[in-house]
Amino acid sequence: MTEFHPNALCFGEEFPASGAPCLVHVEGHGLTITFSSEANHTQSEALPFSGMAVSAGGLDHDQLVIKWAGPMGQRTLYLKSSDVIRAFRQAAPDHLTAPLEQAVEQVRHVRQRHRIVWSIVGGTLLALVVGLWFGSDLLVELAVDRIPVAWEQKLGESAYHDFLAGQEIVKDGQAIAAVKEMTDRLARQIPDNPYTFDVTVVKSDVVNAFALPGGYVVVFTGLMKKAENPEEVAGVLAHELNHVLQRHGLERIVKQLGFVAVVSIVLGNQQGLGQVMKQLGVELMTLKFGRAQETEADMTGLQLLHRAKIDPSGMITFFERLAEEDEGRVEWLSTHPMSGARAERLKAEIAAMPKLRPEPFTFEWVKVRASLGGQVGAGS
Question: Based on the number of CB atoms within 10 Å of its own CB, is 73 exposed (0-12), middle (13-18) or buried (19 or more)?
């Protein structure tokens, strides 16, 4: 017996509710429909074109539906094979051309509507994912909240020591004492501070300072020599310390690692993230913060300066002077760009603060700058 491979499904009163599989051949007179019995016998019947009506149907409306009245009642045949449908269209007589074309047009419309619906569904899902990732920081903040500070400190410490290994560090002297006094005054005004700030002065003419996750801060001597008074350096320190306190570096890293990593952290898997973050190495030191993060560090930095009774205007004057003198080529400005709107916002914030009687530092800035080889200006 020839192996039976059905290519259509036929429904009728004598067939099961799920239909009877059948093999359809297109002949010159119409269709030959072959059914297979339980005893592996086949039975064929001829269906002339003259007795059939055609339309489109099926679950996806991509099938050709043929109906006719048989000896056992109404029958319906569903053809899905494109080869059989193509052969049917070629062999069909003129009286079936119109309903066939109508069925084809209906299938085309249905398929187009399905494509539009699926495009909308796909676009909506994509927009939802993108919105979760780029439009809202809620998921990132949730992930960062699940990272312990102790673990964050290990990460920052590793990158910190990797960077310092190739640098000339200023270990003692008036610059170290001055930076320590500034840092201590600021840190004392931070309630429930989970971090122990470790600030290192690196000998370099680069005008820069940066903070790493966990409380590690680097200040270059080039930045200290550029500052005309200690309040300007304290302003930079207050800004960097608040990047640490707000965990901005960690947020940027987590965001860079991607959606899957964030979900992994939220669900409790921090081990895999640690390996990836360690591979970032010194890239941690060149992270550019977002506008909202810069604004937050500015505002909280100003408030910290105010609580420490350090003139907060030093933060603004230093940023503005660097931007004017160096046209944004300063390293610190490349990662903390100072726009006009940002400066105006800082000035407005200072104007709204209660009047402050700043307390001077115990060191002489003239001598600190001189110890670094900096020029002593009028503002020193």
Answer: exposed
Whole-model pTM: value is 0.61
Question: What strand order describes the sheet that includes 30-36?
Answer: 42-48, 30-36, 20-26, 8-12, 73-79, 63-70, 53-57
Structural contact between residues 224 and 208, judged by C-beta atoms closer than 8 angstroms: no
CB atoms within 10 A of CB 339: 11
Query: What distance in Å separates the CA atoms of residue 126 and residue 96, rounded to the nearest whole number?
Result: 44
Counting Cα atoms < 13 Å in the Cβ hemisphere of 346 gives 28
Rg of the chain over Cα atoms, rounded to whole angstroms, equals 38
pLDDT at residue number 283: 57
C-alpha distances in Å from residue 244, one per residue of 143, 232, 241, 296, 316: 16, 19, 5, 11, 20
**Portion of the chain with pLDDT greater than 70, in percent:** 82
Identity of the residue numbered 75: R
Cα angle 24, 104, 71 (rounded to 5 degrees) comes to 40
Burial 126-145 (b: 16+ CB within 10 A, else e): eeeeeeeeeeebebbeebbe
- Amino acid identity of 327? E
- The C-alpha atoms of residue 56 and residue 66 are separated, in whole angstroms, by 9
Read off the pLDDT of each residue in 159-185 and give the average, rounded to a whole number. Answer: 93
pLDDT digits (tens, 9 = 90+) for 204-241: 998 889 998 899 999 999 999 999 999 999 999 999 99
Q: Answer left, alpha or beta for residue 191, where phi above 0 means left and psi between -120 and 50 means alpha.
A: beta
At position 206, the amino acid (one-letter code) is V
Render 190-227 in DSSP notation, one character per residue: STT-----EEEEE--S---EEEETTTEEEEEHHHHHH-
Q: What is the DSSP letter of 51?
A: G
**Per residue in 252-267, pLDDT tens?**
877 777 656 655 555 6
